[in-house]
Design goal:
By secondary structure, this protein is an alpha/beta fold. It has two domains: 2-157, Alpha/beta knot (3-Layer(aba) Sandwich); 174-242, tRNA(m1g37)methyltransferase, domain 2 (Trp Operon Repressor, Chain A), CATH 1.10.1270.20. 34% of the residues lie in helices and 17% in strands. It has nine helices and nine strands. The protein has helices at residues 19-26, 63-74, 95-101, 119-127, 146-157, 167-171, 205-223, 225-229, 238-242, and strands at residues 2-7, 31-36, 49-50, 60-61, 82-92, 106-110, 131-136, 190-191, 194-195. A five-stranded parallel sheet has the order 2-1-6-5-7. A two-stranded antiparallel sheet has the order 3-4.
């Protein structure tokens, strides 16, 4: 997978070259290129923003600079790219989104700042039959798109074959079965007077699986009843319903 990121703060994306993601890049599983948007400015001040038409607070990012940047970065590779535009007004980015994008050959992330990017940049890309997804990572307001890109790249790249040491970990992801994962424990058996639940040391795999499922159902019901309500009819078996 090739990943391009366009931003006025390239340094914000440095964490993508650390740890697991850094190893995925070194292993050739991911090609990452970060581009400074100001490369495509033409004025001495390298202006990337201007006042909003119709008034209102803050500034809006100019379409000319973004249009030239997108054209240039898209041309760097012939593979078709999904253009991703983080925005507070976007569709929710979920585990299902990450799963879907993990099959793409190329992702191109555009990091807005100020009050966002002139809408015509997205409109122009879509009318050229480019795939453009405007997405939000959550119901809160950030200062720019860079942090959202860090989140989305990590969620997608960890799903690529060969990235996670233990592929089963991604298969048993929280949300992958529609539930939150239950509590996890490791040694010591007792820590500050708190013991690991006996069932987890029983060696009885059926009982352990049931216990884990019950804890996941309990936690989901308590913290995310919306996920429970969204489960398909056949997602819960009789033992689940008895819980
Ligand atoms: N992904 C993601 C994000 C982002 C995000 C992503 C990209 C950019 C580019 C600029 N900003 C800042 C910005 C601040 C204020 C406003 C105005 N609106 C805000 C909502 O109320 C109405 C008025 C717009 C944009 C961004 C924020 N925030 N939260 C997410 N989940």
């Amino acid at each position: 997978m090739r990943i391009d990121v366009i931003t006025i703060f390239p340094g914000y994306l440095a964490p993508l070259r650390e740890a697991l993601l850094g190893r995925a890049i070194s292993a050739g599983l991911v090609d990452l290129a970060v581009h400074d948007l100001r490369t495509w400015t033409r004025d001495v001040h390298q202006a990337v923003d201007d006042a909003p038409y119709g008034g209102g607070p803050g500034m809006v990012m100019r379409p000319q600079v973004w249009g030239e940047a997108l054209d240039a970065v898209l041309a760097l590779d012939e593979r078709p790219a999904r253009i991703v535009v983080p925005t507070p007004a976007g569709r929710p980015f979920t585990q299902a989104t990450a799963q879907a994008w993990s099959g793409d050959e190329r992702l191109l992330f555009t990091c807005g700042r100020y009050e966002g990017i002139d809408q015509r940049v997205v409109d122009d890309a879509r009318r050229r039959d480019l795939t453009v997804d405007e997405v939000s990572i959550g119901d809160y307001v950030l200062v720019g798109g860079e942090v959202a890109v860090l989140v989305m790249v990590e969620a997608v790249v960890r799903l690529l074959p060969g990235v996670l040491g233990n592929p089963a970990s991604a298969e048993q992801d929280s949300f992958s079965d529609g539930l939150l994962e239950g509590p996890a424990f490791t040694r010591p058996e007792v820590w500050r007077g708190l013991a690991v639940p006996d069932v987890l040391r029983s060696g009885n795999h059926a009982k352990i699986a049931r216990w884990r499922r019950d804890r996941a159902l309990e936690r989901t019901a308590e913290r995310r009843p919306d996920l429970l309500a969204a489960l398909p009819e056949d997602a819960l078996d009789d033992a689940d319903r008895a819980f």
